[in-house]
Write a structure and sequence with these properties.
Blueprint (H helix, E strand, L loop, with lengths): L10 E5 L3 H12 L3 E6 L23 H6 L4 E4 L5 H13 L2 E5 L12 H7 L4 E6 L14 H8 L21 H21 L6 E6 H9 L3 H8 L14 E4 L2 E5 L4 H10 L19 H9 L3 H10 L4 E3 L10 H6 L2 E3 L6 E3 L4 E3 L16 H4 L25 E5 L4 H11 L3 E6 L25 H7 L2 E5 L5 H11 L4 E4 L3 H6 L4 H7 L4 E4 L16 H8 L18 H24 L3 E4 L2 H8 L1 H10 L16 E5 L12 E5 L3 H10 L14 H6 L1 H13 L3 H9 L5 E3 L10 H5 L3 E6 L3 E6 L3 E3 L18 H7 L4 H9 L8 H6 L1
Parallel strand pairs: 1-2, 1-4, 2-3, 4-5, 5-6, 13-14, 13-16, 14-15, 16-17, 17-18
Antiparallel strand pairs: 6-24, 7-8, 8-9, 10-11, 12-18, 19-20, 20-21, 22-23
Helix pairs in contact: 1-6, 5-7, 6-7, 6-20, 8-15, 14-20, 19-21, 20-21
């Protein structure tokens, strides 16, 4: 008998419009929530959206809306009709949560503003999705996802783009999808609190803060701890997307060993002799390109697989549904309406927990159902006995992860109160400890990584050599004390340790075990190494990023942060099932399934309309003009590499831009008054804006355009994030005192909860093995045994590499 979906008694009213709110409520509906979408009589604009301007029958809905709205209900309400507004307020009184965003006539109605909803229905979780958050000096400023990527530092965060051209943003409206997933997390966290009583709360989700978290690699913490930026300048990553004799293929090296193996693979073993090439190898691209050009994509992928080099085909909306791995895993399914194919849900459970998918609703399809007066009202709100308690206080998590995706998932839990035990070994410490760029001769070099620190505050650290019988025995004893296990290795790693799900359940029957393999627990790519870039390559995210006249560029960030975010969504659902049933859950949250979901638009667009979406530099389907323009400033190196982002999303914004420019003759062409006309003349508009911006500093451009309501931003360097007035106001960065690296600013969550916490970082990232004695002593390990474990290298406080260097 199938388990009841975890959110089966949860009623969510959807007052949002756009991808972010729709994806948030889709994730909640998949988890069993009853989602009631309230639309104006003309319907949500997303119903008529197509990124390629493809047409569909009158009264029909676009493929993206249909994908995002499966299993939801639809009712209509006219914001100009008082009786309709009374019905909406009655619906809110009977609900548990509401998801709200600007942009619709209903959401802009004063009695449906977040503060009014909270006043009239104080039991509700009110999740708001906005560009900058609900408060702060920028909260009412014009923005698009494109300008938010510029403000976040994500456009140049990991060196994306050739030096002789403008940098490029991450395509595919990725900020909308990431923000939707964060909003789903915030809503489920608030529900956890509601279950123990007390009032509802405001869950304030910021897209800017989401992009800071997900598109950059803790640059502010890094610069504070190391004294220089993590990466400066721009370049095309080598190797990356390579051109074979018959197409494109994605390759990459994420570790020193992978680089050495790659040198042998491309028949240049002499490169192994120069250690500096691992960090500075762009000039080797012509030799690498020559080797690739002599081989087919199939040959290159086979050879890379033999050398254990991360690799993947470059997926597109056309090729992903027929890719062997996705076919074998059933990763692409037919939409319930049967019109097109789409990604299956981003995670899987044993036992199955997700609600079977149902067709998206027609406009107003559930009017009669939702008018039923016999729905039980929400329970009265009482005082909370645990208002100050963090949501996951008392939850113990075993963290067997490393690098970014897994540690991000467990770090969000740690910031929300969970006790997280991060397991490393002295032989193989977490790889992010090695990213400080310090010499091994420097004291305590492994404790000075801003990236490790940014991902691991509030955690405890235990070193165990799992290559030894004693280390594995101790790990099993730790497992017996934990509610949750999270790991992100390839599937064979845990199996080699004798810790498959059956073995773990024998130790702790009610454990929630979250596995985060790159490509899943089955399928032909099951054991392939996976880093963010190959996940992006395989899922289509790379295909949407880059210049239209050149090979695509891996975003080099989204694969990891998106996976960690979705893994937490899955974990929260599994924990709710455990709370209800006392039953443990296996969670399979593969990186590539999460990536396929946020790349869904190109898959459904091609299947439904036969249109292949593709990268277009810094242009996009939601604004025209939209581009980066060079400003008169110089960068930190004294070069002319400072840019501004401008995106005109509405006709009114175009009129404001035209007036701000002084109404030049070229801008007065009546054809430019419409988005269609502006798209047709985008090249000419770009030439004029390039000339205008080239004579002005970035701050001058922003002041001129933003004050009149035009979305504009400076393209920030990642380490400059903390200078943004909006992030300062909202306290996104918190200072954390580290015993070795000193005080550094650390990012938090892109969510603000009205019930707290007021501060997310309670303790610094742990030193290597800092909590060995505390944790192992609780297991009954004596001081004498502890000394023996230390002598034999089962535990320790310094990496083996550090001991060898001395």
């Amino acid at each position: 008998m199938a388990a009841m979906p975890p959110l089966s008694d949860y009623v969510v009213v959807d007052l949002s419009t756009g991808i972010a709110g729709a994806y948030c409520t889709k994730l909640l509906a998949d988890g069993g929530a009853e989602v009631v979408k309230v639309e104006p009589p003309e319907g949500d604009p997303l119903r008529r959206w197509s990124a390629s301007d493809s047409s569909f029958p009158a009264g029909g809905d676009g493929a993206l809306f249909t994908f995002l709205s499966s299993t939801k209900q639809s009712v209509t309400a006219d914001p100009d009709d008082d009786d309709d507004l009374v019905r909406v307020r009655s619906l809110l009184e009977r609900a548990d949560a509401v998801v709200w965003s600007r942009g619709s006539r209903l959401a802009e109605c004063p009695i449906l503003a977040p503060d009014a909803i909270r006043r009239d229905a104080p039991h509700l979780t009110v999740t708001t999705i906005t560009h900058f958050g609900l408060d702060g000096p920028w909260c009412d400023r014009a923005a698009t996802e494109f300008t938010l990527q510029a403000w976040s530092g994500g456009i140049v965060g990991l060196g994306r783009g050739a030096r002789d051209r403008a940098p490029v943003f991450v395509g595919g409206q990725i900020g909308e999808w990431l923000t939707g997933a964060q909003a789903a997390i915030g809503t489920m966290v608030s529900r956890t609190r509601a279950l123990v009583g007390g009032p509802g709360e405001l869950v304030d989700v910021s897209m800017l803060e989401t992009l800071v978290l997900c598109l950059t690699y803790y640059p502010v913490t890094y610069v504070d701890m190391v004294g220089r930026p993590f990466r400066s300048g721009r370049s095309i990553v080598t190797p990356g997307v390579e051109t074979a004799s018959d197409g494109l293929v994605g390759l990459g090296v994420g570790t020193g060993q992978q680089w050495l193996d790659f040198c042998v693979m491309v028949e240049h073993p002499e490169w192994m002799e120069d250690r500096k090439l691992f960090a500075n190898r762009g000039h080797l691209q012509p030799d690498i390109a020559a080797w690739m050009a002599q081989r087919t994509t199939t040959e290159i992928l086979d050879i890379a697989g033999n050398f254990r080099i991360p690799h993947a085909p470059i997926g597109t909306g056309a090729t992903i549904p027929v890719t062997d791995h996705f076919e074998a895993r059933g990763s692409i399914v037919r939409n319930p309406r049967g019109d097109f194919v789409e990604p299956d849900r981003p995670y899987r459970f044993d036992p199955p927990l997700l609600r079977p998918s149902e067709p998206a609703p027609l406009l107003g399809e559930h009017e009669a159902t939702r008018r039923d007066p016999h729905v039980d009202p929400a329970p009265p709100v009482g005082a909370s006995s645990s208002a100050e308690q963090l949501p996951y206080q008392g939850l113990r998590v075993l963290d067997l992860t490393s690098f970014w995706a897994g540690p991000l998932c467990t770090h969000m839990l740690a910031m929300l109160g969970a006790e997280v035990l991060h397991i490393e070994s002295t032989a193989r410490p977490d790889g992010t400890r090695l990213l400080a760029g310090l010499r091994f001769s420097e004291p305590n070099w492994w404790e000075r990584s801003g990236i490790f620190s940014g991902l691991n505050t509030n955690k405890k650290d235990v070193t165990l050599d799992l290559a030894t019988d004693r280390g594995r025995e101790l790990l099993r004893r730790v497992i017996a004390t934990c509610d949750v296990i999270v790991e992100n290795s390839t599937p064979r790693v845990l199996e080699q340790l004798g810790l498959d799900v059956d073995a773990v359940r024998a130790i702790r029957p009610d454990v929630v075990m979250a596995r985060m393999p790159g490509f899943g627990l089955d399928g032909p790519w099951r054991d392939d190494p996976a880093f963010a870039f190959v996940i992006e390559d395989a899922s289509g995210l790379t295909w949407m990023t880059g210049y239209p006249d050149a090979s695509p560029i891996s975003p080099y960030c989204v694969g990891d942060s998106n996976a960690g975010t979705h893994a937490l969504c899955a974990l929260l659902l599994a924990l709710e099932h455990r709370r209800r049933s006392g039953e443990g859950v296996l969670v399979e949250a593969s990186m590539v399934d999460a990536a396929l979901n946020v790349a869904a638009e190109q898959i459904v667009e091609h299947s439904a309309h036969g249109t292949l979406l593709a990268r277009d530099g810094n242009r996009g389907p939601t604004a025209a003009p939209q581009n980066l323009y060079r400003a008169a400033d110089t960068d930190d190196a004294g070069e002319r590499d400072a840019w501004v982002a401008i995106a005109v999303a509405t006709d009114d914004q175009w009129l404001a831009l035209r007036d701000a420019l002084g109404r030049p003759a070229w801008a007065m062409d009546p054809a430019l008054a419409t988005a269609t006309g502006r798209r047709q003349q985008h090249d000419a508009i770009d030439r004029h804006l390039t000339s205008w911006c080239d004579a002005r500093r970035g701050d001058e451009i922003v002041d001129c355009l933003w004050d009149v309501g035009v979305p504009v931003a400076k393209v920030m360097q990642p380490h400059e994030q903390a200078t943004l007035a909006q992030l300062q106001f909202r306290g996104y960065f918190e200072e954390v005192d580290h015993p070795i690296a000193g005080t550094a600013r650390h990012g938090t969550l892109p969510i603000r909860f009205s019930r707290g916490p007021d501060r997310f970082h309670r303790s610094p990232a742990p030193l290597l093995g800092e909590h060995n004695h505390e944790v192992l002593r609780d297991l009954g390990v004596s001081d004498e045994e502890m000394a023996e474990l230390d002598d034999h290298g089962v535990i320790g406080r310094a990496p083996d590499a550090a001991r060898r260097s001395h």
